[in-house]
Every structure is written in structure tokens, then in C-alpha cells.
Amino acid sequence: MEGDEPGSPVVSDDEADSDLEKVDFEAVGDEIDGLIEEDDSSSDEEKNTIGDVPIRWYDGYDHIGYNREGKQIIRGKRKSPLEEILDPKAWRRVYDEKNDEELVLTDKELDVVARIRAGQYTGGTTDGDEEIVPWTSNKIEIHPLPEPTEPKRRFTPSKHEAAKVVKIVRAIRAGLIVKPAKAEKYGNLYSFDVWEEKEDDGEKSKSEQARDLMRIHAPKEPLPGHAESYNPPEEYLPTEQERKEWEEAEPGDRKTNFLPTKYDSLRKVPAYPTFIRERFERCLDLYTAVRVRKEKLRINPEDLIPKLPSPEELKPFPNYVSCSATCKSPVLSISMHPAGQFLAAACDDGFVRFFEVPVLKCIAEWQLHEEAIVNVDWCPKPNVLVFAACAGHSVIIGNACSKGLGTEANAIDSRTLLAGDGMLEKGSQGSDGDWTEEEDKRIEIKVKRRARNVSWHHTGDYLASVARDTTGSSVVIHRLSNRQSQVPFKKSGATAQVVAFHPSRPFIFIASKQHIRVFNLQKQVLVKKLLPGARWISSLSVHPSGDHLLVATYDMKLCWFDLDLSNMPYKILRNHDEAIREARFHPKLPLFADCSDDGTVFVSHGMVYNDLLQNALIVPLKRIDKKSAEVRQKKAEKVLQQTLVSK
Questions:
Q1: What is the Cα–Cα distance from 28 to 164, expressed in whole angstroms?
Q2: Which of 583, 504, 483, 506 is nearest to 538 (CA)?
């Protein structure tokens, strides 16, 4: 065997073994221990471990960093410039700012610095002017250069290395060399299984406790059912039509990703063709699962439903149709007298028919116009029997006492209301309407556009009419006392649909198709603009308190507005399947009702409190339709007939 150095004598294997036996392993071990202690002593020196950060970050502290043990390196006292000038060896010293120490340069290091400043090589043996000898490139060779034979020592273990290895192995077995604990603690910090169920091994660090708190268990796969069995029941097997529909459908539209198949025995079941794909999708689901823990709200669903009082506690309210009446022509509008005794119906043949409410019997009829009466409304004063109606280009104010309704006191009060300041025989000219009177019976006001709606002021002296035409202003206000009509809004804006007065303030509500504007007639300013969010408004009704508004729309919505709360609806009710034509508040009781084209009337409870901090209470009470009314009427007739037969 050749030696480690070139030219060493060749020795046999027996001689090598005898030489290995002569090695003093204890001396070699002492040498290794000395080297280890030297390394440990060198590692105990205070060296700054702050890394590559600017030292100016520690200007405000009395230390400049931390050593390997985590202790602070206290900032040392620097020499003054005068002391450095007086020191003869100051030019040899270099200040290490990071470790806060002065280093003294040796002669060799000064020689290297001088050579670098002179632009020379740092090594003194190399001048850089030697001639380069082209050992292999000066001649053109035909064959490649021969490779020298590899020496045997490269394939044979070294003796002194074997001795060191033996010594290290003995030290490890004796426990003198211990594996660093840092590698065990932080080696696999970021390579762990998120879904792994770890056992509690005692105390944990704060980071491990935080990971345990935020750990999310893997979502479980659904358990197989009867359809996934190799021998499913007959009802789970698909028919030919179902099999064809499953094959033609897109993979995302299929209810299941397999077709149930029946086999006689388990050994006849073939390999599952989509096994690898399903495993991949499962791994993909686990990979893309949201690792965010969300706290579930432990709320009982019944607690979210507002607790409404029972309808039995809110009586009285209408429960059924007690009586009905028919007219000779279609009825376009009805109005109940404030006293609750008479009902006026506007008919298509130009008649206004009056019914007595307890028995709903037609006691009088009055032909006011040749065209259809589209709207009728009683005067809000309960002691007078005066009504207003719209037909064509006319707004007609009639005295129902002339048809025999009411008492003598009602007739006197009605005539006083119609008389005003003075009666005009030929009509009033120069206003936005032509007034014509007929004794104490009626007053006809000719307007420029076809009227569609009329509404009274709570004093009974004013009324407003709405025209059908979209050009110009469509709202006209009439005053009975001085027989004048005026258009308060000269500018042509959105077409007005319905108009209503405030019961106590000088406000007027004008509803267009999609908005409701509230004007102050006294100050002549816009107070508020309400946004019901509807396509077409059909009617509106003001609560007797004046702070709430009920708006019906043709798109099947009933909006309740709290004027002190917001310009958006407080509640939106959808009780009908077709357009809502009319909605009204009860003048005394906390009730309101709305009727629709589907032939139903919905009665609801609407309580408004004096406390401004408490919102209105809305409770649906009763749905009255035509079919239930007919059934109830037939039952009543049957009971009456049986009673008469028994008597």
C-alpha cells in the first residue's frame, strides 16, 4: 500500500494493521478534546449577533447588540481625539463599530494594506509579471493526452482518519458528544401535517398552543349509501331512460358521479375506473380547504322572529263579509262617510249611488255627469253630507242632503259649507277653474285637463284634484269659501298620480309614479322626498297622526313610511299576487286595509305609539277573499233555512 505522501514506501496489509494497533487512541482523544475546548473558548468571546443591520439603530441605547447567549453587549468608552493623537500606536489601531472594540494590525496585515493601496497582489510571492508557459497548448496533438494512473491511496481508507473516527464513535457512545437540541427543536418547524391528530405530550409552547387552537379537522367524506353497494336494491338501479339522461348530462350537472350497478358477488366487481381521479379531487379539496375558524352563532331561529301579539288580542277587526250589494254598472271608486253611516259609490254610467251601511241598501242615486265618475270622496267633516267627484273635465261638489240623506241639521251645515262667502250666479272667471253653481245642490268646476283623483283638506274648505294629462302641472287646489282654483306648481315635472293633505300641518303629499314629494304650502318649499322603490304608485293614505304614510303600488307592494325615521320605507308588505289598487287607514282604530286585483282584501293591525322611541307595530290579521265570502254566505243561508224549517 502506498503512503499518504508521494514517494512513501510501500507496506503490506499486515504491517498496516500492526501500525494501527500501535496508535495511542487515548492521546488522539485528548488532542480532539483540546481542539473542542479551544473551539468552545473561542465561541465564548462576546461577538455581536444582530446580523446585517445598521448599528445606528442602537444609538439610543447603552448597548450595541447581543452575544450568542442573548446577553447585552454594553457599549465601551471611546478615547477622546486628544488621547488618540498622543497615542504613538494609534495609526495601527482600527475601530470595529459592530463589536465595539479596537483591533491592532500586525506587520503582515499592514503589508497587505500597503500592497492593496499600491494596486498590487496581496501575496508577496506573486508579482503578476511571470511568463505563462503553455504546457499543453503549444503543440498540436493528434491523440488526446494520456490520463495518469489513479494512485491506490485514493481507494484505501486512511489510517489516521480511521483513528479519529474510532475516537469520535467512542465519545458519542460515552455521551461526551451530544447532538445539538436546536436542530431537534426547530428542524421540522414548518414541515408538519395540518390534519394530523397529535397527542398531548405535556407542556407546549405558545406557538404550539396557538396552532392547536386554530387547527381545523379535515372534512369527512360522506358515508356510502345503498346506491353505492355492489348489490343494491332494485329501486336504486336506474332505468334505461335515466341511464341515457345521466350519460348525456354534463359531469357538473349529474346528481351522482357513478351509476349504481348490480353484481352477483363481490369477486365479480371490477376495478373502480375513477378511483385515482376521486383521490386526486379529495386531496385537492383538502388542499384548497379554507383554514379559517369561524365562530358559529348559537342563536335559536325562533328568537329571530319578532314576537307578535295574537290576533285574538287585537280585536275588534273585520273577520268576514257580513253583507254585499250590487250596482247596475261597474263601480270605479267608493268612499265611506266620516260618521260611518253612508257609503258613496262612483259608477261607470255617471251615477253616484248612496248606500246605508248597516244594511248596505241603495237609498239614493244621483247622475252627476254623462261620462264615468272615476273618483268620489266625502268631506272629512262628520256633520255635513258633502262629497266631491271627478268626471271628464269636471270636479263636482254635491250636497247629498238634496237626495234625502241625513237630518235637517246635516242639511243646514251642508248648505252653509257650500254657500261660502257669497254665491256666484254666472261663475268665477280669471282663475284656473270655472265655477258653476246650482242652488244648494251642487257646484261644478271646469278644469283644463281630465281629472282622475280628488282629495279633501281636513278643514273642509279646500280640496285638490289631479289631472290625467302629462303636459304642464296636473295638481289644482280649489277653495270653497271664495270660489277660486289655483295651480300651486307651474313647472311641469313628473306626472302626479295621487294627492293627499296632511291632517294637521300645511303639508301636501304629491305622488308621482316612483316618488312622493312633501311640500309646505305655507312656506312654499319642498320638505322631503320619499323613495318607496316602486315602479308605479297607485294610492296613498295619511295616518290620522300625520307621522305615517301608507303607499300602495301596482307592483304588489304595500309600503309603510315613518316620516320621522327616514325617507325609505319602514316596512314593505307583499300580501297579494296582483296589483294593489287602494290602501286606507281606519280613522279611529289602529287598523289599515288594502285591496288588490286578485279579489282579496288584507286587514292588518297598525299601532302607532306616542313614544317616539318605539316603532310602529304591524301585525297581519285577516285575508278576506271573494270565495270565502261566498262560502260563508251559503253557510249562513243554509243555517237560516234550517232554522225556518225547524220552526
A1: 7
A2: 583
